[in-house]
Amino acid sequence: MGDPERRRRRLLLVSNSTLHGGGYLEHCQEQIEKFLGENVRRVLFVPYALHDQNAYAKMAREKFESLGYGLDSIHESLDPRDTVREAEAIFIGGGNTFRLLKKLYDNDLIQPIRKRVLEDGIPYIGSSAGTNVATISISTTNDMPIVYPPSFLALGLVPFNINPHYLDPDVNSTHMGETREKRILQYHEEPNTLPVLGLREGSLLLVEGDKATLQGKTGARLFVRGKTPTEHEPGTDFSFLLNEDPEKL
Amino acid sequence: MGDPERRRRRLLLVSNSTLHGGGYLEHCQEQIEKFLGENVRRVLFVPYALHDQNAYAKMAREKFESLGYGLDSIHESLDPRDTVREAEAIFIGGGNTFRLLKKLYDNDLIQPIRKRVLEDGIPYIGSSAGTNVATISISTTNDMPIVYPPSFLALGLVPFNINPHYLDPDVNSTHMGETREKRILQYHEEPNTLPVLGLREGSLLLVEGDKATLQGKTGARLFVRGKTPTEHEPGTDFSFLLNEDPEKL
């Protein structure tokens, strides 16, 4: 808080791109339009989380064009770092978080994206894996570790973790694998671990500078190390999570 | 195949320690007794996958003592490497696979355990995370990456991957997170990835030298890169998975 660099930060962190019964980005398209506003004309898309980047870019392009925005996919750029430096807005889509983060490192894009978002204040939209990599680390992703990234540290656009696709325990299940809540509590058994915001499918977090607000319809569950998890309705002010000193939570 | 080192290998790789409605290791205790046989008197337990290692060792000790075996927990040893060198049998329990693998590396136990199992032929029992680390890598674990291990490469006691707690898709689900099958198929989108044996809860794989057999009651689903997944009944001979040359599959 109070760090002038972060005062310009603008993020829309979406739990999931597609909600059951709806189309791609349909459940959050109003928020996307409002978030990007009228100044943005083109969005830079990062399709690294899926294997077929051409097909992924095509789907994203169709959706953003239907909303009135042009879309460039970074996988078509000859100089991805330079493309980031010129981007008006960035959208990182979902898929496998390990694959996505590894490609961001491989292409040396962590610092350019951080600079563009935190210093220059261009809008950042993340969905699912793209929301995971916006946070401090990917340690609370649900994905399989199909490739080995050089670090679990991510873009660090916010100083906490998010668990997208947050899923409440199924009381009728006979499956013995850990529930999502139990997995997050295991994370908090480790020292110096940060708060985890469990964003249910259909939820989004809007961050503008030092202000964070829960959007969508399904609410969120917040896990803070050493405390009992808490439930939060849409509209909740989560600005306190942007405090860089977790002792003050 | 034909490597004399691996001819002595004896592994019992269990999908899950506790089956719905049963006690700890109850569903596989007959297989454990038969596997360890009458020559083994004490088992070396590795509780690294759970945070409370004392409680975990107590639970495992009670179970193994009820079956007539003594149990030493490696977390009580002053010299874990030396303790591995003297072990009659090793049991690595479940929990978080990343935490487990990191502690194996931190304590420099990868090579000592490999030597003891592959060269000296002592029995190895793995359950859940303990089954993941027995394979070539942890790239098909279901767990959250709560800590960063120095590699995803694991003990490599078998030259393929296992997905424990394998879960069939729930056709009634409205959740949009990837199904287990889809996650494994994403792994196989990466180059040079190995077969993945999806062991349902209640399934075990018995490996004796160059022979591997599916045990338990629930069957398994096999994923080979570029091929359609296949279903396998209990009793299936999976020895072909032990072939070190995936081209021959």
UniProtKB/TrEMBL annotation, chains A, B:
Coiled coil: none annotated. Keywords: Hydrolase, Protease, Serine protease. GO terms for molecular function: dipeptidase activity; serine-type peptidase activity. SUPFAM superfamilies: Class I glutamine amidotransferase-like (SSF52317). The keyword Protease applies. One of its GO terms (biological process) is proteolysis. It comes from the Eukaryota. Transmembrane segments: none annotated. One of its GO terms (cellular component) is cytoplasm. Belongs to the peptidase S51 family. This is Alpha-aspartyl dipeptidase-like. The lineage of its organism: Eukaryota, Metazoa, Chordata, Craniata, Vertebrata.
